[in-house]
Amino acid sequence: MERLALEELQQQLPADVLVTNPATIESYRWDRANDPEAGTPLVVVRPTSTEQVQQIVTIAAKYRIALVPRGAGTSLSGGSTAVDNGIVLSLERMNSIEVHPQTRSVTAGPGALNAEVKVAAAEHGLWYPPDPSSFEICSIGGNVATNAGGLCCVKYGVTTDYVLGMTVVLADGKIITLGGPCIKDVAGLSLTKLFVGSEGTLGVITEVHLRLIPRQKQPTTMVATFPSLESATQAVQQITRTMRPSMLEFMDHATIQAVNAATGMGLDDQAAALLIAQSDESTASAVEEIQRMEAICTEQGATEAFCTDDPEEGEAFVTARRVAIPSIERMGAVLLEDVGVPLPKLSELVVGINQIATRHQVSIPTMAHAGDGNTHPLVVLDPTDPEQQARAHQAYGEIMDLAIGLGGTITGEHGVGRLKRPWLQDYLGEDIMELNQRIKDALDPLGIMNPGAIFDATDKEN
Fold first, then answer.
1. 98: alpha, beta or left, given left = phi > 0 and alpha = psi -120 to 50?
2. For a designed S-S bond to 203, which of 87, 151, 168, 281 qualifies (C-beta 3.0 to 4.6 A apart)?
3. What is the DSSP letter of 345?
4. Of 375, 392, 367, residue with least CA distance to 339
């Protein structure tokens, strides 16, 4: 069947769409999660149009070949890990961007990078807010597939809040258009929202219509260091109780050390935790809001707290937070968590993660979009040390169990992918998991769409 599928792909598609060179195919086996169980695909396809995607999906369905949609390959949960003898459908070449100033919106191909959309919007005095730390290298299609968040989502929301519509190729090859330029549209079920965060398991997104807003005002920045995790998280709760900062980020001691080692930035590596907050209100209001945040941090025991309205100085601290993950990746292989909890439980989560690290004798630097309770603990491991690797994986599972036990979630913005699938039913519960499966079966009855991501890969009957 694989041979027949490959032959038909070669017959129907331009030669430059297919990648059959083994060396090139190798680079498409993994995403940034580096899933050790990545398979070897039959072929990589790089279409340039919705119609070509339709041809590919139709052939995959005809021969029951697994299809793995892929954006920029920056998934941190194994969402675009290749499967054996499947088709990797890379959308990287579908990167068109068209801004519509009158409707404050943009139409983008799934391969367009988040940063490219921001630049295009800025040319019209507009802004696309969702800003994952990897915004310079991650794709819009991947952002939509995982409902990505970012540093400013505490005030401005996540990807789903900006998706007005999309074009999708379903698992049977049918092309559908959902939503559109209307800001308000409640006709029928909210199918657009169904596909946001579906991680390529229900269809292939080939175009997205996104909402834009007026350009952000220049923010004012506050940085505070704390002697304990508890004092930092208490400050977060006090700030968010009465204010809406445009950014409220957290870095623990191990993260601070990793960033210093990688960049030489000279952050206070004696601190147990560091908070970076911003306000983008009008000048006078921003100063007042930042001063209130500074006062709260001081009341909660901050060893140092200071404010700046200098754009370059403020951006330097934001950059420190953005480079945290690559800085930690220099320490070794990582298992990257994405667990979130209600804000009142944030202290219990970060303290519990620290205790898990001590118990299993592994390093777990933790950073967080603290303002909305979404944390990113990174379990560092040595893949050449089986005993240490086992402890790291045990710690990884315990962190997810901890988040669930605190009324939280196993993923806030990175998606379930393949790495978190074993914990999904524990989080959702049997009834909700079964409802998810019914939707999956209805839209992908052959089970060809990104098998193994979110749902178990099972062979469907004819």
1. beta
2. 168
3. G
4. 375
Residue with the two structure tokens 């601290």 = 317
Spatial strand order in the sheet of 67-70: 18-19, 43-45, 87-90, 67-70
User: Where do runs of H (alpha helix) occur along 139-178?
Assistant: 140-146, 153-156
**In the prediction, which pLDDT does 462 show?**
43
Residue-wise pLDDT for 412-446, tens only, equals 999 999 999 999 999 999 999 999 999 999 999 99
Contact present, 383 and 333 (Cβ < 8 Å): yes
Evaluate if pTM is beyond 0.90: yes
CA–CA separation, 116 and 123 (whole Å): 11
What are the φ/ψ torsions at residue 34 (nearest 5 degrees)? 55, 50
CA distances from 182 to 160, 162, 178, 241, 262 (A): 15, 12, 11, 33, 46
Cα→Cα distances 413→6, 223, 268, 293, 334, Å: 35, 25, 29, 26, 18
Residue with tokens 């445009």: 246
User: What pLDDT is attached to residue 195?
Assistant: 98
Encoded tokens for 202: 């229900």
Among 427, 425, 426, 417, residue whose Cα is nearest residue 452: 417
Fill in the amino acid letter for 6.
L
Q: How far is CA 83 from CA 42, 333, 371, in A?
A: 9, 22, 37
Both structure tokens of 321: 């937070």
What is the chain's length?
Answer: 462
| Tens digits of residue pLDDT in 339-363 | 999 999 999 999 999 999 999 999 9
Nearest to 38 by CA among 27, 53, 46: 27
Closest CA to 251 of 392, 262, 129: 262
